[in-house]
Task: inverse folding
């Protein structure tokens, strides 16, 4: 009886592969569908050992610091992954997975961002971690008449409301985009320059 049941059993892997191929044909003009077919099906039309990513495989956080040129003032941030799946984005360098991050300050000084800060990010990867560096964020500043150390409102100073910077590159397969927002007030720095931005957004992209 057992032998007869086994003889009549269907090859479910073949069934799944056939249904997948019929629904997502390589003749489809959608480049994302074509890439998925190439990834999931082997050269014989079977499933190529694909397993959906588990939550435990998603990196928990990227550690980033912003420091002044002298390295005497450092602000630490935790960039937490909040999207497990992310969004597939086509680039000239191939298909990338773009994931949204939540910005958390590690030391309670998220308002302070020097306009010439150096950004250093430690990104978790399969082999441990890799470091991405931007030597100067070069945020806009404006010269004001108020004294150094004085708080000044940023309105009507001609400063852009949003700035984006990138660490890494799509050519290297890793890119971290960080977004700065103009604060309502800032502190006048040396030379009478007003710089009043804070870090509030981040996205991480990796080649897939």
Result:
């Amino acid at each position: 009886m057992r032998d007869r049941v086994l003889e009549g059993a269907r090859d479910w892997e073949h069934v799944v592969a056939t249904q997948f191929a019929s629904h997502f044909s390589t003749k489809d003009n959608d480049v994302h569908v074509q890439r998925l077919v190439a990834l999931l099906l082997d050269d014989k039309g079977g499933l190529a050992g694909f397993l959906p990513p588990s939550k435990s495989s998603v990196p928990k956080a990227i550690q980033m610091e912003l420091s002044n040129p002298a390295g005497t003032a450092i602000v630490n941030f935790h960039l937490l992954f909040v999207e497990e799946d992310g969004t597939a984005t086509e680039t000239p360098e191939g298909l990338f997975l773009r994931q949204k991050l939540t910005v958390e300050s590690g030391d309670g000084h998220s308002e302070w961002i020097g306009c010439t800060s150096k950004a250093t990010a430690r990104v978790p990867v399969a082999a441990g971690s890799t470091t991405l560096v931007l030597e100067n964020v070069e945020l806009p500043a404006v010269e004001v008449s108020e004294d150094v150390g004085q708080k000044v409102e940023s309105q009507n100073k001609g400063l852009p409301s949003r700035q984006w910077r990138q660490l890494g590159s799509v050519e290297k397969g890793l890119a971290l985009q960080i977004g700065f927002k103009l604060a309502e007030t800032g502190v006048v720095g040396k030379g009478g320059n007003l710089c009043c931005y804070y870090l509030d957004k981040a996205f991480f992209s990796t080649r897939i």
Remarks:
- The two ends are 47 Å apart (CA to CA).
- The longest strand covers residues 174-188.
- Residues 182 and 197 are 5 Å apart (CA to CA).
- The chain is about 15% helix and 45% strand.
